């Protein structure tokens, strides 16, 4: 049985969307954006769907999020939920006065998921700073065709498959760990 939920960020985590066309051919276009899918994305989603429940949570506009997910979702993969900015919490940075959006896992809990069994994966540490024990930060993707982050992540995540409390495992230096252990 699949017990653990993976909450996946979208922009710079699973894909890169930009108004400025890159040298290589884009995978598709949504609105004004050229979209580059992170290498091995379909493999990653299909593999993970075998071991985990999956969900998408982005701080981008809700409609944009759904359009993108429609394009990248393998037919056999289902998401528990697909959330955009309306589910995030707006915060103001005291130093620069800029706004940013955070993902509060209490909202996931309210939907009935156990936080001991929830991992949130994001390229931006601030987005999940409130979810310290649940967060795995990965390198941002901005179109590098040789990126292999999703392969590394797929390999690392296997260890969480049957863990009762994912928060007990330190995830800060995950890429430096020996994957075979
Ligand atoms: Mg991101």
What can you see in these coordinates?
- With 181 residues, this protein is α/β, with parallel strands linked by helices.
- The protein has one domain (5-176): HAD superfamily/HAD-like (Rossmann fold).
- It has four helices and ten strands.
- The chain has helices at 41-51, 62-72, 106-110, 149-157; strands at residues 5-8, 15-18, 28-30, 33-37, 53-57, 79-83, 89-92, 99-102, 118-122, 135-137.
- Strands 6-5-1-9-10 form a five-stranded parallel beta sheet, with helices on one face. A three-stranded antiparallel beta sheet has the order 2-4-3, with helices on one face. Strands 7-8 form a two-stranded antiparallel ribbon.
- A hairpin with a 2-residue loop joins strand 3 (28-30) and strand 4.
- Helix 1 runs parallel beside helix 4.
- The chain is globular and about 45 Å long.
- The two termini are 23 Å apart.
- The relative contact order is 0.19.
- The mean pLDDT is 92.
- Bound molecules: magnesium ion (MG).
- Magnesium ion (MG) binds at residues 9, 11-13, 122-124.
- This is FCP1 homology domain-containing protein.
- It holds the Pfam family NIF.
- Residues 1-160 form the FCP1 homology domain.
- InterPro entries: FCP1_dom, HAD-like_sf, HAD_sf, TIM50.
What key attributes describe this structure?
single chain; 181 residues; alpha/beta; Rossmann fold; five-stranded parallel beta sheet; three-stranded antiparallel beta sheet; 4 helices; 10 strands; 20% helix; binds magnesium ion
